[in-house]
Amino acid sequence: MTNREEQIEREKRAARLAAARIHSKIGGIRKVSKHFGWNENKYKSHESGRNGFGIADAKRYAKAFKVNLKWLQFGIGQPDDADAEPVSIVDVPRISWVSAGQLTDQDGVSDFSEFPTEPAIDLPEGDWICLEVQGNSMNKISPPESLIFVNLRDKRLVSNACYVVCDETGAATYKRYRPSENPSFQPASYEDVPPPRFQGAVTVVGRVRRSLINM
């Protein structure tokens, strides 16, 4: 997602937050901040769109203003929709392809706290990272600029499943596992894309369990 797209999403989320506050009829920014014990400047920055807010704050605001969390955070459905079941939303670290390759090193990336995050709904249990797809080698499944969510705990190879893998140089790539082909990690593209040329042994970073297209 580009900086401009991120800004647009932040502004849309801020507008929904303002609408939720107004709908609650509790009062203005100062009054609701005092009523719920929030930091007024922080809340004001979220409602104005100057600063974005993540899942933890979204849950707090949705509960306070009695609006649907998916609507507030993602613009899905209507503010008064009731969730059929509890929704699990997590902030997944969004890392670079270079960092993905480093995950297999003994001294590689271990602290994700400094990375930006992407919210994800109802991911199964696991250790998750998010990557933005580059190029067209997997466009049957994930067009360029799609986001993929990778479970670092899931390294078991399953035919036709998709994985992020890296070779001994630390170069990471996203491919489909085809055990009968050489190499066994192959593109899934509508175009004539050659398979990757790995240097040395190939290590599985994790299995891709979700691909998301930002419209």
Automatic annotation (TrEMBL):
SUPFAM superfamilies: LexA/Signal peptidase. Residues 95-208 form the Peptidase S24/S26A/S26B/S26C domain. It comes from Shinella pollutisoli. Pfam families: Peptidase_S24. This is S24 family peptidase. InterPro entries: LexA/Signal_pep-like_sf, Peptidase_S24_S26A/B/C.
